[in-house]
């Protein structure tokens, strides 16, 4: 299948006119028809005829031209329904395109649809959705991860080439790990969030998900940069993610935090992370144990601050100006609004919200200290392989604890690259993440690229 190939390879064939955008689009539409009923990755599909018409007309101006993609349903799209997977917005038709959507469309990519997720980003399994859970293509009795389970499941089951995801506390990395694909959580502010439906504004980030680190580099090159519409987007110049991709990791020091490899980590996951560490050593890196002592507070910090911010962001959906009534929120989302409102209320603000902000600073300082000794940090993404349907949504505490290795990244605002690093004996994919200092996307992508030159986890696909 064409759609097994990377963007880089498809772009090359398109340029040489060996294939046309219509060939790729047709294949994707066929796959969606065949696989989506089993997976439930889509919330809203773009009309097939419109997709093919666009494919016929597309001009090949960039490596993304003619490449079919999907959006996690948190990005507003002009005249196309945007729900954030919630009944509150089930009939919301936006009037403009988010900046990231505008950039990808201007590069010539073809949008196939808006994808399933945990409502508002609240969750790690795509079960907290009003559109039915997304299933894991490697085992449909299991979840695809979350909150961006739909986009990840669609890529690995070959319904599209890439996706634009959103990561507040792991929502790009967790589903990438559990579906066996590659995803990049960028530095806070690296990509514009204008037109992205806010979950927790001091954590949210926009990033690419695809099959390989090289594809993520290609996409990032097009979407990164300052945006006059988003005051939180960074004015720092955009890196050159592509031309130095092959530089390798010779001499780089990769830290493995002992707190991320201890109690609570499934031995099957641990083993694969250690095997990956050995691969990095073979590639010329030096592996060192490091410590992030305050990471033990990360879940408490994140689950006070993110709900506080979401309680404020979701106040606008009052059923009068925007959206349907507030009774349409799911129990998980209501719980977060309640926790956040409580943590922000007079009398509790100092004890909870303010304390959590202080602890956040300690976590940032921990990372800064570690990054004086190493270039990157290697760790698991999730403590377990993909969970069974029902396992997380019915156990709110377990649901939060599953984010233990991902929320520190967003708490510190740093970037992280999720990569597939193996399979359990029963054939479930396992992922790892590399974290780096602020704006180290170039180095992260170089490391991911080097790893994917000597492994083939990223090319495997499920037999659906
Ligand atoms: N699972 C985390 C949460 O529920 C992260 C979600 C996200 O990154 N959007 O908050």
From TrEMBL:
<protein>
    <recommendedName>
        <fullName>Glutamyl-tRNA(Gln) amidotransferase subunit A</fullName>
        <ecNumber>6.3.5.7</ecNumber>
    </recommendedName>
</protein>
<feature type="active site" description="Acyl-ester intermediate">
    <location>
        <position position="171"/>
    </location>
</feature>
<dbReference type="Pfam" id="PF01425">
    <property type="entry name" value="Amidase"/>
</dbReference>
<dbReference type="GO" id="GO:0050567">
    <property type="term" value="F:glutaminyl-tRNA synthase (glutamine-hydrolyzing) activity"/>
</dbReference>
<keyword id="KW-0067">ATP-binding</keyword>
<keyword id="KW-0808">Transferase</keyword>
<comment type="similarity">
    <text>Belongs to the amidase family. GatA subfamily.</text>
</comment>
<dbReference type="InterPro" id="IPR004412">
    <property type="entry name" value="GatA"/>
</dbReference>
<comment type="function">
    <text>Allows the formation of correctly charged Gln-tRNA(Gln) through the transamidation of misacylated Glu-tRNA(Gln) in organisms which lack glutaminyl-tRNA synthetase. The reaction takes place in the presence of glutamine and ATP through an activated gamma-phospho-Glu-tRNA(Gln).</text>
</comment>
<dbReference type="GO" id="GO:0030956">
    <property type="term" value="C:glutamyl-tRNA(Gln) amidotransferase complex"/>
</dbReference>
<feature type="domain" description="Amidase">
    <location>
        <begin position="24"/>
        <end position="445"/>
    </location>
</feature>
<dbReference type="GO" id="GO:0005524">
    <property type="term" value="F:ATP binding"/>
</dbReference>
<dbReference type="GO" id="GO:0016740">
    <property type="term" value="F:transferase activity"/>
</dbReference>
<feature type="active site" description="Charge relay system">
    <location>
        <position position="72"/>
    </location>
</feature>
<dbReference type="GO" id="GO:0006412">
    <property type="term" value="P:translation"/>
</dbReference>
<dbReference type="InterPro" id="IPR000120">
    <property type="entry name" value="Amidase"/>
</dbReference>
<keyword id="KW-0648">Protein biosynthesis</keyword>
<dbReference type="InterPro" id="IPR023631">
    <property type="entry name" value="Amidase_dom"/>
</dbReference>
<keyword id="KW-0436">Ligase</keyword>
<dbReference type="InterPro" id="IPR036928">
    <property type="entry name" value="AS_sf"/>
</dbReference>
<keyword id="KW-0547">Nucleotide-binding</keyword>
<comment type="subunit">
    <text>Heterotrimer of A, B and C subunits.</text>
</comment>
<feature type="active site" description="Charge relay system">
    <location>
        <position position="147"/>
    </location>
</feature>
């Amino acid at each position: 299948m064409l759609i097994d190939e990377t963007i880089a390879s498809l772009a090359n064939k398109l340029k040489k006119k060996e294939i046309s955008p219509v060939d790729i689009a047709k294949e994707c539409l066929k796959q969606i028809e065949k696989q989506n009923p089993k997976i439930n990755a889509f919330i809203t599909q773009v009309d097939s005829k419109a997709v093919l018409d666009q494919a016929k007309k597309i001009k090949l101006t960039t490596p993304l031209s003619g490449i079919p993609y999907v959006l996690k349903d948190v990005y507003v799209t002009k005249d196309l329904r945007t729900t954030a997977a919630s009944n509150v917005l089930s009939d919301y038709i936006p009037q403009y395109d988010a900046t990231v959507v505008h950039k990808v469309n201007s590069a010539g990519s073809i949008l196939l649809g808006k994808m399933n997720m945990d409502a508002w980003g609240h969750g790690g399994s795509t079960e907290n959705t009003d559109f039915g859970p997304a299933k894991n293509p490697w085992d449909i009795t299991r979840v695809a991860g979350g909150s961006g389970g739909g986009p990840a499941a669609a890529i690995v089951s070959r319904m599209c080439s890439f996706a634009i995801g959103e990561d507040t506390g792991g929502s790009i990395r967790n589903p990438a790990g559990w579906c066996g694909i590659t995803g990049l959580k960028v530095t806070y502010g690296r990509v514009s969030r204008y037109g992205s439906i806010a979950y927790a504004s001091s954590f949210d980030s926009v990033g690419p998900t695809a099959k390989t680190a090289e594809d993520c580099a290609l996409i990032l090159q097009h979407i990164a940069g300052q945006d006059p519409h988003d005051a939180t987007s960074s004015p720092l110049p955009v890196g050159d993610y592509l031309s130095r991709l092959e530089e390798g990791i010779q001499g780089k020091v990769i830290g493995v935090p002992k707190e991320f490899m201890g109690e609570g980590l499934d031995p099957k996951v641990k083993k694969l992370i250690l095997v990956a560490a050995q691969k990095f050593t073979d590639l010329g890196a030096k592996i060192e144990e490091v410590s992030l002592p305050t990471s033990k507070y990360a879940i408490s910090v994140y689950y006070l601050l993110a709900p506080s911010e979401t309680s404020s962001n979701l106040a606008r959906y009052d059923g009068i100006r925007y959206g349907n009534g507030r009774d349409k929120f799911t129990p998980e989302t209501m719980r977060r609004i309640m926790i956040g409102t409580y943590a922000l209320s007079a009398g509790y603000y100092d004890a909870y919200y303010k304390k959590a902000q202080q602890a956040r600073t300690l976590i940032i300082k921990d990372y800064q200290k570690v990054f004086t000794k190493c270039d990157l940090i290697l760790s698991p993404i999730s403590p377990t392989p993909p969970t069974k349907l029902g396992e997380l949504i019915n156990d709110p505490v377990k649901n939060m604890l599953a984010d233990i290795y991902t929320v520190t990244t967003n708490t510190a605002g740093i970037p992280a690259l999720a990569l597939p690093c193996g399979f359990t004996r029963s054939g479930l994919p396992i992922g790892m993440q590399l974290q780096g200092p602020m704006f180290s996307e170039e180095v992260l992508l170089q490391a991911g690229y080097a790893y994917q030159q000597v492994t083939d986890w990223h090319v495997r696909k499920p037999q659906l």
